[in-house]
Amino acid sequence: MSRSVTLKGNPVNLAGPEIKAGDTAPEATLSANLKDNATISSFRGKTLVLAVVPSLDTPVCDLEAQRFNKEAASLGENVVVAVVSVDLPPAQARWCGANSATNIKTLSDYKHRDFGQKYGVWLPDLGILCRAVFVIDPAGKVKHVQYVPEIAEQPDFDAALAAVKA
Fold it and tell me: At the fourth CATH level, which superfamily is domain 14-165?
């Protein structure tokens, strides 16, 4: 079954399964930097917020990541907020430095292209990830999912944060 979101009103196909609340979070490998990897399971024991963005170097993604960085400061040490994109890790690090983003982690799907396929956020026609938010509990169960219908719009921050605090 084909799924899609829109980019400025134009449908764009998504590849991969649709993840739902209650599912076990799929294992995936992401790049933490150019040489080190991180897996979804490496965050077990903590609540994990995955804020998926097309690119940190776009205005909507920039604002979203800044908002999650601000919110992460008050979520406590048992919550990890990670911004996921296909941006190269040095570009992600540059963005974090330029924006004093010290409360979030950045993870990249540039090398493995594993996460986008397993979480159903890969946009094969554009070569980027769609905008989505996943909240995964400490046991690895998905508590909240939002595939943002229009890529150029922000996610529902209140719903994501409520799932983290529930």
Answer: Glutaredoxin (3.40.30.10)
